[in-house]
Amino acid sequence: MNGKTQWIKVAKITDVPASDVQRCQISDKCVALFNIQGAFYATDDICTHAHAHLSDGYIDEDRIECPLHQGIFHIPTGKAIAAPVTKDLKTYRVRIEGSDVLIEVEE
User: Fold this and answer.
1) What is the pLDDT of residues 34-86, one digit of tens each?
2) In angstroms, rounded to a whole number, what is the distance separating the alpha carbons of residues 84 and 22?
């Protein structure tokens, strides 16, 4: 990230069950918060191929399948791994403070 960043509380750890995702709105950003067996990850929620919310998609281990055209992304890295997606997702750093989940975003 370039410039100043800030940590924003987006959820409690209990809000996102294991192997699930929650949509989070941070200002004008729509972010997907994933809990992959106790490890939290955050990516842009909008698919890079077509306008679809990945938080409505299907999680298989550490991959998310877009609900619109079934493109697949690797959740921890945001890497596009199956057609028709070719552009990677933006990822965000996640931090746990007590029972709170925070995401680092640009100010």
Assistant:
1) 999 999 999 999 999 999 999 999 999 999 999 999 999 999 999 999 999 99
2) 24
Look up residue 75 and give its two tokens.
């959740």
Please identify, in words, the CATH class of the domain defined by 5-106: mainly beta
- Whether the Cβ atoms of residue 103 and residue 26 lie closer than 8 Å to each other: yes
Six token digits for residue 10: 């987006």
pTM surpassing 0.85? yes
Sign of the C-alpha dihedral, residues 65, 87, 26, 95? Answer: positive
Calculate the CA 29 to chain-centre distance.
11
Q: Domain residues of the chain, as ranges?
A: 5-106
